[in-house]
């Protein structure tokens, strides 16, 4: 199989580099200055053991690459870029048909909406719960501080089940050094991760202080209430920490990552953040099932405004948002 990594940023490049170093065939798909540097200089990939430059082939899109029937598309864009990536890749020609008809897509993304979007265009979708600390702040450079493994990638067929392709992908990810448990209930793990990612916006907007922590706790309580009202199951904290501590993935002191993936979007000034698919997912569920979600709605609105305005991460004040919520 060849892995075509669509969105070779923090997560995508970490997966691509690890598969490449394990001898798997990989193409990194990127855009803008990041693509230029990948093509001209290669990927600079830093892990606790070393920093190396990897000459992995890079492409800008389907016009730039002859797709093969053994390709697996790994979608690793932020969720707000999923629709654009699908519009470009689903109609691409391969093996006498389209990519949508022939190829598997692996969603290595946070949130729970990407798989639904992909299933509209592709017949075979694999969902991944991504526990992987990685940083991408400069074109061509990705830092992956996970130790001893780069991360835990729990995978399964979407919406549920396991098949031979999922097993094969799991084996390749394990060869790349990941802890890659295959589960038939992968979305239960992804909904639990979604609850954890409700803190991304607060981290990006305010950094970490007691007021931000209080907002994150309240966002999570709303999230749990919304999932319960919707009848959506998620794995317990105990199940998750038992799984992660069994595998011992941590980071090396002095080599920790910067902020969350949302924090990194603000730091890079990309103009958009993933919040509509994280806090916004809870707001959507709350509105559908009659559960109030004021904290998630406020974080969603403020993070979108901050991204559009090019605000620096950590430039807001959590205390102000708490006061505004109290006055509502
Ligand atoms: N970073 C982390 O440690 C973690 C991230 N995640 C999740 O993983 C997913 C990816 O996040 P992350 O790796 O941080 O994101 P990044 O922003 O680092 O990487 C995504 C990359 O995709 C590029 N891109 C977007 N659309 C396209 C396209 N159509 N064609 C080619 N390239 C494209 C972006 O370009 P541009 O910069 O120009 O927008 C960017 O380089 C998200 O769902 C995130 O929540 C999960 C766990 C941890
Ligand atoms: C949990 C966290 C914050 C770190 O892996 C993450 O998923 C992200 O950065 O989006």
Automatic annotation (TrEMBL):
InterPro entries: 6-PGluconate_DH-like_C_sf (IPR008927), 6PGD_dom2 (IPR013328), KPA_reductase (IPR013752), KPR-Related (IPR051402), KPR_N (IPR013332), NAD(P)-bd_dom_sf (IPR036291). One of its GO terms (molecular function) is 2-dehydropantoate 2-reductase activity. GO terms for cellular component: cytoplasm. The keyword Protease does not apply. Keywords: Oxidoreductase. Gene3D superfamilies: N-(1-d-carboxylethyl)-l-norvaline Dehydrogenase, domain 2, NAD(P)-binding Rossmann-like Domain. Residues 185-301 form the Ketopantoate reductase C-terminal domain. Signal peptide: none annotated. Residues 4-158 form the Ketopantoate reductase N-terminal domain. SUPFAM superfamilies: 6-phosphogluconate dehydrogenase C-terminal domain-like, NAD(P)-binding Rossmann-fold domains. Its EC number is 1.1.1.169. It is an enzyme of class 1 (oxidoreductase). It comes from the Bacteria. This is 2-dehydropantoate 2-reductase. It comes from Beutenbergia cavernae (strain ATCC BAA-8 / DSM 12333 / CCUG 43141 / JCM 11478 / NBRC 16432 / NCIMB 13614 / HKI 0122). The lineage of its organism: Bacteria, Bacillati, Actinomycetota, Actinomycetes, Micrococcales.
